[in-house]
């Protein structure tokens, strides 16, 4: 933890050093209001760490999320601290909650979810934090009970929000989440204004398309008329083909009939000839 704190101090000094102004560790201790050490791995808070933390007289927010700590050691009293984040660690005992109460008496927000607390009653010790209004405890073993918020509100009646929900079950965003949402809306509006300005002229040139139901009806009627005309034409063609075939077949029939008639006449003539010879 000591190394992580010193890195934060050096970063602040680098950001605030100018050609005409040189900053010191003392300046950093007085100016730094947030100490975010998320993800820095240290299991315990040592005496050296405690001595360093004592120097931050105006620290308002301390974040030790995902650091792997199992206890808080002998944390100094930090009356300026209003936000403490200890999520996703290995904290589990009521003594830790008692230590939080004594070391940070003006705490308004405590995020301690993702640890190993099993008993809701252990949190009753947080009653001594008179300004505590927001509490995060999700992903502790006791939070598997669907009624855990209701029970916690009964144990801590002065707390207003537990895991982003108030006593009425209404979701309430934190200030950071509200800032993120406002920033997103601003970006969204900026992008929207850009597109509207960029394509306004093109949109004005385009004629608005208005569907015309009458046109669809006219198209249907036209299709029906065309179908009827096509059918009539086909019928005419069939009649014409039939007449053509009849006219083509007529001479043939006439010729055949003439042949039959000639054959009959020849037969009659032959018969008459035979009769004459006999006589």
UniProtKB/TrEMBL annotation:
Segments of skewed composition (Acidic residues): 199-241
GO cellular component terms listed in the entry, alphabetical order: nucleus
One Pfam family hit: LRR_9
Biased composition (Basic and acidic residues): 242-263
Keywords assigned: Leucine-rich repeat, Repeat
Alphabetized GO MF terms: histone binding
Highest taxon of the lineage: Eukaryota
Signal peptide: none
Record InterPro entries: AN32, Leu-rich_rpt, LRR_dom_sf
Region: Disordered, residue numbers: 198-279
Family, similarity comment: Belongs to the ANP32 family.
PANTHER family per record: ACIDIC LEUCINE-RICH NUCLEAR PHOSPHOPROTEIN 32 (PTHR11375), ACIDIC LEUCINE-RICH NUCLEAR PHOSPHOPROTEIN 32 FAMILY MEMBER A (PTHR11375:SF0)
Protein name per the record: Leucine-rich repeat protein
Species per Swiss-Prot/TrEMBL record: Plasmodium yoelii yoelii
Lineage, broadest ranks: Eukaryota, Sar, Alveolata, Apicomplexa, Aconoidasida
């Amino acid at each position: 933890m000591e190394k992580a704190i010193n890195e934060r101090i050096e970063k602040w000094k680098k950001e605030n050093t100018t050609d005409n102004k040189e900053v010191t560790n003392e300046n950093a201790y007085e100016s730094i209001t947030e100490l975010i050490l998320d993800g820095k791995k240290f299991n315990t808070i040592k005496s050296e760490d405690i001595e360093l933390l004592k120097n931050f007289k105006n620290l308002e927010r301390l974040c030790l999320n995902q650091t792997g700590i199992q206890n808080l050691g002998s944390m100094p009293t930090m009356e300026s601290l209003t936000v403490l984040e200890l999520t996703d660690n290995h904290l589990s005992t009521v003594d830790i909650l008692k230590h939080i109460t004594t070391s940070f008496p003006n705490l308004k927000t405590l995020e301690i979810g993702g640890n190993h607390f099993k008993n809701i009653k252990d949190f009753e010790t947080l009653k001594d934090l008179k300004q505590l209004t927001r509490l995060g405890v999700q992903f502790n073993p006791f939070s598997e009970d669907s009624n855990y918020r209701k029970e916690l509100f009964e144990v801590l009646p002065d707390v207003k929000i537990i895991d982003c929900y108030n006593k009425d079950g209404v979701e309430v965003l934190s200030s950071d989440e509200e800032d993120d949402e406002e920033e997103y809306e601003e970006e969204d509006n900026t992008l929207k204004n850009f597109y509207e300005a960029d394509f306004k002229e093109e949109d004005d040139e385009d004629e608005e398309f208005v569907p015309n139901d009458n046109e669809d009806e006219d198209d249907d009627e036209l299709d029906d008329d065309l179908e009827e005309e096509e059918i009539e034409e086909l019928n005419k063609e069939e009649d014409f083909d039939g007449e053509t075939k009849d006219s083509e077949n007529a001479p043939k029939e006439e010729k055949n009939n003439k042949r039959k008639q000639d054959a009959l006449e020849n037969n009659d003539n032959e018969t008459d000839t035979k009769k004459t010879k006999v006589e």
